[in-house]
Amino acid sequence: MNVIIVHGGAGTKRDLPERKKVVIKAVESGYKILKEGGSAIDAAIRATVILEDSQYFNAGTGSGLNIEGEVEMDASIMTNSLECGAVACIKNVKNPILIAKLVMENTDHIILSGKGAQRFAKIMGIRKYDPKTKKSKALYNKLMRRIKGGKGTRYFPRLPDFIKYYNTDTVGTVAVDREGKFAVTNSTAGVILKLPGRLGDTPIFGAGLYANEIGAVSATGHGEGIIQLCLSKVAVDLMKENNAQKSVSIALKKAKKYNVRCGLIAIDRKGKVGWGHTADAMPSAYIKNGKLTYKDWV
Ligand code: ASP
Predict the structure, then answer these.
(1) Is the terminal CB of the chain with fewer CB neighbours within 10 Å at N or C?
(2) How much is the mean pLDDT over the chain?
(3) What does the angle CA 126 – CA 131 – CA 136 come to, to the nearest 5 degrees?
(4) What CATH number should be reported for the domain holding residue 89?
């Protein structure tokens, strides 16, 4: 079947030209793997690593900082055979998605979090890495100045406003290979200025991602709302009777009803693609039958 779709987060219009370039590079690299007979897992992972390494997304290098100025990242992978792996609140690694894959392939667990995830990464030979960049520190300092300037309180009741303007450039991928097998991945540092230990939807199966024999979906956006709606599972279930695009549209309608700012990408069992969002933008691209389609979704 060989189809792959990639998103660079729903929510912000920041750096769109740069993010477009990376999204296209990621989708093309993933597609190349599919075309050469590689698996959906390898294609989705390759695309996700490119996005994590680019510094333009809230995933891997350049990730947003939490309220204490630390980067805590979440990443996940799932296949149509319900194999799953995720890491949550992991610090000091370069590619959280690779550790999520190691969890899936090497442990009896599905999600490892915090220090336990870091210990596991070390055991698996992953080197320590600081994903902060000058830019991510500058954004953190700017937001903290706003908070300290009286625009919020100690417990950040205005955080939803910041989500609206600054966050959500997480990354996600859905791929289907020539054997009709699906893989879906997610990677993020979560909502900027989040409280330490907070988990969003990204590593939560059924919420931030889901795959089975019917289709696969990756979600991005306001994690709390996506978890409340179990949005990815809702969208996959809709694919029993609808194509991927219709399913995404119905799921997003539901999200809108609950004021959840989010985006979805999907592929169904016929290889049809679905995408859309309820936020400001969602740079995304897919390749099907060798043809690339890109949208900023502004
Ligand atoms: N969904 C992610 C979270 O809430 C953020 C995002 O998609 O940008 O952690």
Answers:
(1) C
(2) 93
(3) 170
(4) 3.60.20.30
